[in-house]
Automatic annotation (TrEMBL):
It holds the Pfam family Multi_Drug_Res. This is Multidrug transporter. Keywords: Cell membrane, Membrane, Transmembrane, Transmembrane helix, Transport. It is found in: Cell membrane. The keyword Transmembrane helix applies. Belongs to the drug/metabolite transporter (DMT) superfamily. Small multidrug resistance (SMR) (TC 2.A.7.1) family. It comes from Devosia psychrophila. GO terms for biological process: glycine betaine transport; xenobiotic detoxification by transmembrane export across the plasma membrane.
Length: 110
């Protein structure tokens, strides 16, 4: 597999783990806590594999940017958490940065 696929798996793992953090209730709920721990273990394992072929700064920018966007969407639908206009603008700028890296940077994992 190439670095971009590993990075995608890391992003999915992080989004799943982070989505269950609230339900884990400070790690007092067994099943959500296990999902969080396993999710982050998968995340960091595959992120480390991705960084073998992707520069760390680029990989981290894509990983964190995609995570912020996806978690914000999930929080809206699962927890009813809304974002105000400045938050939406900020997330839009993060998304724009990830797109610029992927579409135009010679350092990105094309």
């Amino acid at each position: 597999m190439n670095g971009a696929i590993y990075l995608g798996i890391a992003i999915v793992g992080e989004v799943i783990a982070t989505s269950f953090l609230r339900s884990a209730a400070g790690f007092t709920q067994l099943v959500p806590s296990v999902i969080v721990v396993v999710g982050y273990a998968v995340t960091f394992y595959f992120f480390s594999l991705a960084l073998q072929t992707i520069p760390v700064g680029i990989g981290y920018a894509i990983w964190s940017g995609a995570g912020i966007l996806l978690i914000s969407i999930i929080a809206y639908f699962l927890h009813g958490q809304t974002l105000d206009l400045p938050a939406l603008i900020g997330i839009g700028l993060i998304l724009s940065g990830v797109l610029v890296i992927n579409l135009f940077s010679q350092s990105s994992p094309h």
